[in-house]
Amino acid sequence: MSKVRASHIGRRGAVSAAHPLAVVAGQQALFQGGNAADAMIAAQAALCVVLPASCGLGGDLLALIHQPDGDVVAINGIGRSPANPTFDHAGADGSAVTVPGIVDAWARINARYGRLSLGACLSFAHELAVHGARMGKATPRAVRDHRMRLEAGGGSDWSVVASPDHAIQPQLAALLADISERGVEAFYKGQIAAGIEAAVARAGGCLSSLDLACHVTTVAAPVSVGWEGGHAYVQPPMTQGFLLGLCLDNLERRGLQKRQNLEHICVELTEASFAYRDRAEDTSALMGIDLDINLEVASLRGGPRAYLHTAGVATADNEGHVLSSLVSVFDEFGSGVYVPEGGFVLNNRARGFTSAPNDAAPAKFPVHTLAPSLLVRDAGVCALATPGADGQIQTLLQIIARMAGSAPMELAHSIAAPRWRSEDGKLLIEASHPAREDLAGRGHRVVVRDDGDMCFGGVVAAGLERGLPFAASDWRREVWHGVF
Fold this sequence. Notes:
By secondary structure, this protein is of the alpha+beta class. It has helices spanning 20-31, 36-50, 102-113, 118-131, 139-152, 159-162, 170-182, 185-188, 190-202, 209-213, 242-253, 262-273, 283-286, 391-403, 411-416, 436-441; strands at residues 8-9, 13-17, 60-66, 72-77, 133-134, 166-167, 218-220, 223-227, 230-234, 311-317, 322-328, 338-339, 344-345, 373-377, 380-385, 420-423, 426-430, 446-449, 460-465, 468-473, 480-483. A hairpin with a 4-residue loop joins β12 (338-339) and β13 (344-345).
């Protein structure tokens, strides 16, 4: 059965994150006089230490930032494929690596929105790496599942492989200290950049030091759709977050969110929207289209795929900053390619290339699965994010739609409520879901999973209500929250 975890209201700030130690890191940044941007970076850095199967310095960051003046900006901390004309993503593990974007995004966010130094934001994560920390509870299983890949990728001596329950990570600690002192130069140039190039080459790829040196974080306007008298914001290209915007836009414009069969309609919208996934670059042209759905019975189009990883952080402060973010190396341990000079593994985001226009090419962004969201209404601002790859759109759609449905749910209850996930033509559903029989009766290929199965995500939430910061979190996975 689902477990409603109460939300909490603070006075200075709020943090919700994919691991309790990340919440502590974010709160420490707030204690030190930092704001929500500082807290987000601190929490993400801690996640890079304790959840190495899901995220790390070899991966990416996407965030939406609500500013005190009401403007919302999107940070796309994602990297391109190698510029080498021989690039082919379908070969060895090294060929799947794109330029890691998280470190440059941290520096950009810190310089533009933060109050603390970047070193102060990374200090808690540095201490975790120096003294050792208990890894996320899924890490030992992930190491068992991927040991052969990690050893083939050069990680035989990685402390996380040797001790996946509780690891001291001296190389990662040294890199975090160097980034704290020298900024992005410590990662994108010099020893670490050369180490990345060498590790990728050993694994059959062609990412170069020049690719790293040329990397720039994209700062852009988000995609916005009207929602319940306000706006819902999602990431702009190159992410599939726009699919959530398509679904919410269809619910709002067509007046579907108050219907009794809302769960069925949301499944239909999900599957219809994923037909446009590869066209993320055309987001502006696609917004406003009517998705072709059957309001009564299952169309059985499928579309969403079956992979699960990523980690979320949501933060807020009493000045008006609210941030929704996700960090990721794509698959578990990404490419499995280990960089011994820095103590981290590299992403395999090039596996996100599919068919045209999302086909693989040199120096190109693949469509990303990362899809943080922000809701801005008269009542306040709410940041929502969840892991789950193609499940992200679906989980957030269910939560947001339920808060506006015929019997509206409060945020904490909507997060706790049972969920479904469309995956490879089947409809996975938590055992306690009240619409199980109705959805099966409408023709959906229902497959019952235990309540709390990893496939249903782990939602982080933070925001502002009546000017005060609040946080909420999922009972699923290891998500937690705290306020100050």
